[in-house]
């Protein structure tokens, strides 16, 4: 009966729960969902990871390639991130070119990784102006139930932490390249950036901040995704991005930063445990 009520009167259904200081799935406003993480989930990828956060499921695969560095950055390699939202993960997405929302997700993930400075692109350069590694990081959403950026960042960082680069020799005179897959070195990853999503619900009394929102909660808060993304990197705030939604109450601003910081420590422990 409640499912029918949710479909017919979604706003009233949601507000009835919020007025009782509880969310439709029984969580508190600042409570996150459980996380399950598995490294090396794809056998034919150079590194991979699979995450399940609530019902949101994302798999990441990294493939390596050699290329010539850019002329303006001769001593830098490449880190290319891409997020795919297939029709499989939600009925909102259709086959064909990436939607605007999928491109926003990809750009946000790329910005978070870049701003966190967890990867030094100079470490990917083999011979300046001649040869460098390209890391193609493809994330595919298998089930989208909210907070998609959180899942993408976690599975990407886990994959990067488990990635090993083969030894490469380059003959300057003949430009011959030799790759020794029997001799690999772990990629240097500085820190563990963790993103935390929030949705801002404009209730009749005041605006309420919900941690780790589901897709239903994101929709009720006036967007197709989370309204706010906060990223911490081992105790350092490295990014805050806001996408529409209502204003955040002054008393809630400091609290949500602390909630995100606390969550980042928990996710860091999950990643380290998974990799160990």
Commentary on this structure:
The chain is an alpha+beta fold and 276 residues long. 29% of the residues lie in helices and 34% in strands. Helix 1 crosses helix 2 (10-18) and helix 4 runs parallel beside helix 6. It comes from Pieris brassicae (White butterfly).
The DSSP helix count reads 6
Low-pLDDT regions:
none
Radius of gyration (Å): 21 Å
Structural class: alpha+beta
Number of strands: 12
Report the mean per-residue pLDDT as an integer: 85
Helix-residue proportion: 25-40%
| SSE run | HHEEEEHEEHEEEEHEEH
Percent of residues in β-strands: 25-35%
**Shape category:** elongated
Largest sheet, in brief, is: 6 strands, mixed
How far apart the termini lie comes to 45 Å
Give the key terms:
276 residues; 6-stranded mixed beta sheet; 12 strands; nucleus; cytoplasm; single chain; elongated; alpha+beta
Please provide a brief summary of the model.
It is found in: Cytoplasm; Nucleus, Nucleolus. The chain is α+β, with helices and mostly antiparallel strands.
What is the secondary structure topology, with strand pairs?
Blueprint: H1 2-8, H2 10-18, E1 35-39, E2 47-53, E3 56-67, E4 78-85, H3 100-116, E5 125-127, E6 131-143, H4 148-161, E7 164-170, E8 177-186, E9 193-202, E10 207-211, H5 215-220, E11 228-233, E12 236-242, H6 250-275
Parallel strand pairs: 4-6
Antiparallel strand pairs: 1-2, 2-3, 3-6, 5-6, 7-8, 9-10, 9-11, 11-12
